[in-house]
Design a protein that fits this description.
Organism: Pseudoprimorskyibacter insulae
Structural class: alpha/beta
Strand order of the largest sheet: 2-1-3-4-5
Protein name: HTH-type transcriptional regulator RpiR
Pfam families: HTH_6, SIS
Keywords: DNA-binding, Transcription, Transcription regulation
Largest sheet: 5 strands, parallel
GO molecular function: carbohydrate derivative binding; DNA binding; DNA-binding transcription factor activity
CATH architecture of the largest domain: 3-Layer(aba) Sandwich
Helix content: 55-70%
Amino acid sequence: MMLGDPETVAAQIRMRLPKLTPLEGKVAGDILARKDINDDTPLKDVAEKSSVSEAMVVKVAKKLGFAGFREFRKGLIEYYKSDAAALHTEISNDDTSSEIVQKVFRTSMQALEETFAIFDLAAFDRAADYLHRAKQRDFYGFGGSAQIARDARHKFLRIGLRGSVFDDAHMMLMSASLLEPEDVVTAFSHSGETSILLEAVQLARKNGARVIAFTNYHDSTLAQTADVVLCSTAENSALLGENATARIAQLNLLDALFVATAQRDRAAADANLIKTMSAVSKKRER
């Protein structure tokens, strides 16, 4: 891994977690959770804290993209000094309401900061081009991801770009079977490993449709299948969960993508926005 912006270190590690075995993932999680690692922390200490061999720690470091343990240690030290790392604090049972609010907001801020740090502008521009030119826009997602898909459809309809949301397995596969090369699927999946969504995405690709993936893991199966990957990242929280804060980052990515797509034909977007706003404005009158 090329060490640059310290805020990217933890994000790059999290994105590679799907490549690890359960034991390797535990070791990576143990090390990420530590805040006491410094330049003098020996490999032996890290291995003993995770109850594994020194060779295992080195193996994990390399699978996470580092040249070895020393580079891994250096990256973590730099990350722990960053502003983003300081934002996250785990919620405890005796937190006051004020502390809870601060911790939840700061954790979301961390997800935004780190997602922005790994932002892929070239992929973002390709995604906006695909959505702008698409004949049909289908949005796929299950559970919490389906809510993001619905938000996407709502946003694009406001500017006259029609799309459909599919959050049912059979409907998703039916959608994918009818897609053509002029069409685009935007798939939302935190893990990037939801089997039925992957089946639908692979069918869509087989039929020539472009696929845009919103996911937390760049090495996930969904990311490897997609034409364009827009990655979020979030630190795991025992109570909030990783998905909750990653969703905040994905919604911000979606907002930016919506604006960029609208900018491809701003005159048409503005004209359609006036129409759609006018159509619903009377419902707000009393």
